[in-house]
Structures are given as structure tokens and as C-alpha cells.
Amino acid sequence: MYDPGILAIAFINIIAWRVSSTCPIYCLLITKYLNVIESHRMSLQLGDAAPDFHADTTEGRIRFYDWMNGAWAVLFSHPKDFTPVCTTELGEVARLKSRFDRRNVKVIGLSVDPLDAHKRWASDIKETQGYSMNFPLIADDDLRVSTLYGMIHPNADAAETVRAVFVIGADKRIKLMITYPATTGRNFEEILRVIDSLQLTADFDVATPVNWSYGDDVIIIPALSDEQAREQFPAGWDSVRPYIRVIHQPSRGH
Ligand code: BEZ
Questions:
Q1: Order of strands across the sheet with 238-241?
Q2: CA proximity to 249, closest of 217, 221, 226
Q3: How confident is the model over 155-214, as pLDDT tens digits?
Q4: Ligand 1 pocket check: which of 85, 92, 93, 112 to mutate, most ligand atoms within 8 Å of Cβ?
Q5: What is the pTM of this model?
Q6: Residue of the nearest CA to atom 9 in ligand 1?
Q7: Which residues are within 8 A (CB) of 55 and not within 5 positions of it... i.e. 6 or more apart?
Q8: Candidate list 86, 137, 191, 206, residue with the active-site label
């Protein structure tokens, strides 16, 4: 019933915490290391519940689930503050914020530096990218949240997060995970495109084809029989093949 791995990690964490008054840095390092190992053993998968957490952010202390407040969320990590690619990414997400809002999606960044560094970095972002930070950035200097979400990939760097993106539905389930290396900046227009697909396919029994973007034709999912499809899509479909049934995109409107 209880996973022995989790019990062992919990036990070691308690011991580390108990003796931390005598060897704080040593114990902190051991705890961090064990947590990273554990997060790899238990990596998150699509459809899993997104782990809840408390964290300090540039917009105050939050509990993640409360902060989501019934919306969708994009949680994305950055290797480090005051790095050039991350600076461009945060400016871009600030620029696109209203387009996330329109989709009922809240955005939250994470970097493994402390809050005072985040606040100083925010000035650079505004000055160099032309957009002020208009969403919270988690100060994950103890690597707690990044460990929980498996954002540390020791083969890339044991102390910094990779560029992870998690899209989390209003039901708190993980809908999408993408991982980029530190040297490749993300395309957040692509994240918006995928969110359009995720939200559409959550509402209708359709899938979106290659390079689809909002408004393009979609495909009826194979699991739906022709009889079921006729009920849902009475206007019919274009049968390119019996298994490729194309229809105009049903409307969600945003
Ligand atoms: C960057 O954000 O520019 C960056 C961070 C870590 C490694 C390489 C680039």
C-alpha cells in the first residue's frame, strides 16, 4: 500500500530536518539531492494530478491550486535569473498575457533564484524587452517546486531547471508537458496554439491535424463510430478515408 521509496525518502528527509541544526548546509544538500532522485523515479505523466504546492512569488505567497482559482494554468521554468534567453522569454510571455487571459489560462514562471533577485531582474526585463512582468515568478531557491515537477535534469545541470512547460487543466490534471534545453528559447505562440487544441478537444470529440491552428478544419476522433459521429455532427463530414473524417472546427469562441 505504501511505496517503500516514498517512505524511505520521507524518513531521510525527517532525519535531515532533525539534525539540520547541527549541520544545516550538509543536510540541505543531501535533502535536495534525494528529492531530485525521487522526482526522477516518480516522473509526472499526462493525465496525472498536477502537484499542489505553496511558494513565494513576485506577487506574494501562493498556494498553487488556490491561485489557479478554477482556470487553466501554464507553469514554466527558467534555468536562472539574469540569463539572456530567459529574459527574452519572460518579456514575450508578458506581451502575450492578454491572449492567455482570453483562454482562461493563468501563467506562472519559476526560476531557482531568490525573490530579491527576481525583483531586480524584473527591471531588466522591462527595460530590455519593453514589457513589465504581469504574472508571478516563483522563487524556487530551495528547488522544492522544481523537484516536485521533475524540472531538474541532472544530465543537463544538477542545480538549474531545464525549460519545462506544464499546461494544467481547470480539473488540475496535466494536459501537456514539453521540455527544452537551456540553450533553446521557447515559442509561446506554439504554447497558445496547443492550448487551443487542448481546450477544443476537451469540449468536442475531435482531434487537430498537423500544423492546425484555431479555425482550421479538424478530425473526428477514431473512437467515435459513424453513428455516434452523426449524432454529434449532424451536418456530416468529408470522408477522406473511412478513418479520416474531416469537419469544420466546432465553435468555442474566445
Ligand atoms: C539563457 O537563458 O540565456 C541561458 C540559460 C542557461 C544556459 C544557457 C542560456
A1: 206-207, 218-220, 244-247, 238-241
A2: 217
A3: 999 999 999 999 999 999 999 999 999 999 999 999 999 999 999 999 999 999 999 999
A4: 85
A5: 0.85
A6: 183
A7: 61, 62, 64, 138, 139, 140, 144, 145
A8: 86
* CA atoms of 138 and 233, how far apart (whole Å): 44
∠ CA 196-137-121, rounded to 5°: 120
- Return mean pLDDT, the chain: 90
Residue with CA nearest ligand 1 atom 7: 182
Distance 165 CA to ligand 1 centre (A): 16
